[in-house]
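Long-time lurker, first post. I've been practising inverse folding by hand and with some scripts of my own, and I keep getting stuck on stretches where the structure tokens seem ambiguous. Below is the full token string for one chain I'm working on. Before anyone asks, I'm not after the true native sequence, just a reasonable design that respects the backbone. If someone could post their per-position residues I'd love to compare against what I wrote down in my notebook.
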């Protein structure tokens, strides 16, 4: 029989459709990607084409070559941009609006057109997540910013428009309802239980040890109990910090390596599926509050959202997170990859 599971971080229900569940290997993407060259003359993100991008906000330079390893530039076609007003307009009770104020930046992750996060060295991965943290620090002090949203789209079904590896940083003058709900649930848990929700959740998963994929000194990779999608993956720090902005370099480097390894396993096990990853961190002003823990969620695009999900708000997952986590652990063990998670239950 199928099972309803409650996500403790949102209080939303998920259906684990065990009666039509697919085995982990059934999710392997059958069609491979078309091989890309390391350089494309008409790609605005490739080296030598810097003039084709807009304002450069940051660059991380290779000390050995003097060339950039990561660039952060304004998005040429931004969803939001600076210059408007954050005052809300009430033309009618049902017509509340404000200007599309904010910033929309692109993190060009590598000079190489065909080198993706899953293949990065430790240093390359660190450069990218360091750019995330640094831009969060810079943007969070702006008066028109209430939320910084950091994400990556990989592949056409995940929303990629340019193939050159990149991620994005977008600010908004409001806290989106979806994020606000996450924070409200975490605040309530902290008020009632006196402990950070994500620290509590992480201890539960470590105690059960059936959905853990890998562990390091500072981070745990897991497939959550109420996974919305097959192979949904979270990377959660052992030390609960509300914001990525407060993470020191050594911890950040370890995170970058675990994120790279997670994407590498996903690429190898499922033949490089499309995916999104989203970094969750508190709104501006809450950086020192103890109720939340920053983390990353990876959503492989292996199934489509259909009418039931849209109509009910309840996701149907045709895989068991206990099985997908085991599948990933076994791949790591067979291939000698790091991660102290050898137990199967």
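-- Answer (accepted) --
I ran through it position by position. Result:
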């Amino acid at each position: 029989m199928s099972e309803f599971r409650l996500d403790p971080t949102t209080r939303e229900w998920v259906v684990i459709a065990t009666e039509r569940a697919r085995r982990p290997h059934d999710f392997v993407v059958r069609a491979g990607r078309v091989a890309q060259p390391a350089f494309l003359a008409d790609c605005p993100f490739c080296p030598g084409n810097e003039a084709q991008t807009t304002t450069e906000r940051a660059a991380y330079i290779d000390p050995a070559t003097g060339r950039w390893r990561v660039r952060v530039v304004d998005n040429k076609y931004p969803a939001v941009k600076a210059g408007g007003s954050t005052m809300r307009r009430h033309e009618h009770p049902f017509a509340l609006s404000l200007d599309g104020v904010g910033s929309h930046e692109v993190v060009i992750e590598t000079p190489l057109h065909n080198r993706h996060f899953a293949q990065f060295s430790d240093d390359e991965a660190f450069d990218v997540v360091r750019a995330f943290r640094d831009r969060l620090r810079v943007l969070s002090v702006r008066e028109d910013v209430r939320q910084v949203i950091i994400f990556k789209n990989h592949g056409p079904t995940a929303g990629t428009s340019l193939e050159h590896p990149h991620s994005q940083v977008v600010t908004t003058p409001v806290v989106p309802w979806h994020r606000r709900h996450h924070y409200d649930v975490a605040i309530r848990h902290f008020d009632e239980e006196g402990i950070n929700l994500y620290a509590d959740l992480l201890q539960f998963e470590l105690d059960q040890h059936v959905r853990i994929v890998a562990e390091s000194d500072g981070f745990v990779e897991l497939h959550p109990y109420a996974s919305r999608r097959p192979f949904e993956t979270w990377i959660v720090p052992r030390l609960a910090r509300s914001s990525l902005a407060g993470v020191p370099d050594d911890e950040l480097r370890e995170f970058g390596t675990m994120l790279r390894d997670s994407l590498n396993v996903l690429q190898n096990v499922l033949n490089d599926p499309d995916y999104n990853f989203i970094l969750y961190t508190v709104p501006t002003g809450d950086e020192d509050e103890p109720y939340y823990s920053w983390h990353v969620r990876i959503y492989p695009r292996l199934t489509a959202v259909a009418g039931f999900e849209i109509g009910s708000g309840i996701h149907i997952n045709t895989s068991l997170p206990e099985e997908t986590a085991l599948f990933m652990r076994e791949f790591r063990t067979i291939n000698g990859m790091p991660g102290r998670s050898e137990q199967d239950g």
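A couple of notes from the structure itself: The chain has one domain: 3-74+104-334. The chain has six helices and 15 strands. Happy to go over any region you disagree with.
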